[in-house]
Amino acid sequence: MSERASIPKRDPEEAPERENGIEAVESGSEAIIAALEQAGVEHAFGVQGGAIMPVYDALYDSSIHHITMAHEQGAAHAADAYGLVTGEPGLAMATSGPGATNLITGLADAAMDSDPMIALTGQVATDFVGNDAFQETDTTGITLPVTKANYFADHSDTVGDDVSEAFALAREGRQGPTLVDLPKDITKGETDQWPKPPETPETHDEPSEADESAVEAAAATLSAADRPVILAGGGVVKSEASDELRAFAREYEIPVITTMPGLGTFPETDDLSLGMAGMHGTGAANMAVTNCDVLLGVGTRFDDRLTGGVDTFAPDASVIHVDIDPAEISKNIEADHPLIGDATRVLEQFDEAMDTAPDADQWREQCQTWTEEYPLDYETPDDEPLKPQYVVETFDELADDDAIVTTGVGQHQMWAAQFWTYEYPRTWVSSNGLGTMGYGVPSAIGAKIGAPDTEVVAFDGDGSFLMTIQELSVAVRENLDITYVVLNNEAIGMVRQWQDGFYEGRRMASEYPWVPEFDKLAEAFGARGFRLEEPEDVEETIQAAREYDGPAVIDAIIDPAENVFPMVPSGGDNGLFALNEQHLEMI
Amino acid sequence: MPGPAPDERMRPSGRRNTQGIRIDPEAEATHEPRMAVLSALVKHEPGVLSEVSSLFSRRQFNIESLTVGPTQDGDTARMTIVIEEPEPGVQQAKKQLRKLIPVIDVEELESAAMRRELALIKVAGDKPDDVQAVAEMYGGDAVDASKDAVTVEITGSKQKIDAAIEAFEQFDVLEIVRTGAAALERGSKTMDSTTMESDN
Ligand SMILES: Cc1ncc(C[n+]2csc(CCOP(=O)(O)OP(=O)(O)O)c2C)c(N)n1
Which conformational region is residue A90 in: left (phi greater than 0), alpha (psi within -120 to 50 degrees), or beta? Predict the structure, then answer.
């Protein structure tokens, strides 16, 4: 446990005084920065480069705090996490060509999770566009499928408006990533046009309130249910509907399950909570969703990791689907009652329309039985070797109640979802939809910048950690108080688990013959490093890492044989989850 | 872990089909594919066609034809998209189209809508009179004639053009080009660029 960090700690009191921002604009670049400041942007994550230099030059005089990332993928994930944690679009900046292409994974990730984010990319000057000029790529073309909207700025007088509109679109309605591609001549070009305020274009119309008669019909269906369940998704987080959801569920005493992005929307400590449903969800949640007769889905897109095979998903249930995006209705699961609108507002409408609570004593008892029958559990015959679940559980006990958890992708992500108790929205920051390894390190940076007073814990896998480890340098430079825990099984464990379960144990390319010593790597980056091997050291090590004021990395050497259960095999029947390897063979 | 094993657990009796529709034992709940003509009013700006066409390929909609051209108002263009999909796919295509920022409005045209396409058919020039005679049968015209080839223009429904092409096969067909459908609702009904509807 040596400390080799040589970076001086930054005293916030001594932080350089920033200018108050742009007051009048003279160039496209200044219009861009003015648009961002006007929209309330406070932080930017990015990497410099030739084509974006004029924009960065205008940033020099801005009130916006720029965080230089090690790689543009890191900038995108940090911006995405910032957007999720704050509710306001996070800003990622990159140069043309390779800078822009490096953003793609992060844009796709934000698109899948509907996280608000705006990306600004440099582009070669308009005259060169289409000529395969140095560092040119067709950025709007490449990012079309992974953005909510994108813009190619074609005039210095309107570039500020483009940025304002992109910002508004990222935030309004169903949130998502937007991008503005900025040719160098446009950003350098003269203009005195102050950007318009952030407003969405008129062709874009997001519904706020659901149709009254549809709500009444749905409420009647729910009132008459014998076996009702509420399924809360990420849309509840995005629409700030968690309070309404809690009130509604408690008033009508309806059991609640969540999707993975919906973690934290309903407190897992509540008696009505059955936990997360889906591939690695709890037994109780999956039994409830399979056997319910009315399913009220709020802000969920019925992703296949949630539903398993659609033929066996809530097969007896009338589905009431609340979503702000009409295109989500009946995309994967046919909705009997589509309610299109903002989740907060629709839940209020729903509450007004409910006559009686469903008569569901027996059903609640049944759900309770399932909770007792299928607890989240792991075997600890002799506490050795170290169990990852134990590390997560212990950290949860020690951490602040409202601590934010970010993750990479793999087994560790599932343990972090299962063994941490989520109570508040915006505390689960993970790559749910795209499943991007490498999301953990930069997303923790974005989360900490977005919520500087909240404890941030990042659970990562050794494989995922290695994909974006360079961003540790940023956490050190910015002196961010983040605790990284690498659940190190010397493997890309989730792949190995599937190989053992479904490919006869043929472990092709899933085991690392050697992984670096992450505690030492952390020290080399200037962070604090800890190595954790013994179960009896768990508490002490976590406390020491938490107490360290700056980024700390715990390299936790875990039982490599540990697998994630319960498990619904891909496309399977949620009610037939496996609790162990033998069950897997049965189903 | 405790708790019953998979085969001992409570099981529901229901089922859904591959389209996510609950299967009602009384009525078979599957939709056969049908032809749908979608008309989209879009902003007349660069990139719209690729945005729309990439949406259709990305989401695997089975597209039969897509045509685009300007409208009476210089700022908008109109696209006619013919797809063949089961009912949920048709609805999904409409909703996804509506989500695109440059799309102003989307409507599905009734099956009675006027639907026209155009074909240019180039055939060998050795029997120009016979070619002209067949063209006239289909209301077409020879629009170009040279020593070696005659090109005929035919406009009409898809069926009419299919039939015309078949009739021309008696000559030596050298080349055919077809436009895909352009369609408009019958009567006085028009697509209003100021209303944004969102049906389900
Ligand atoms: C960028 C990327 N590449 C590949 C995958 C496929 N994949 C899913 S989980 C996984 C293993 C992750 O290993 P690790 O980060 O060590 O976590 P563990 O499962 O061991 O906890 C892999 C390779 C992915 N999700 N993302």
Answer: beta
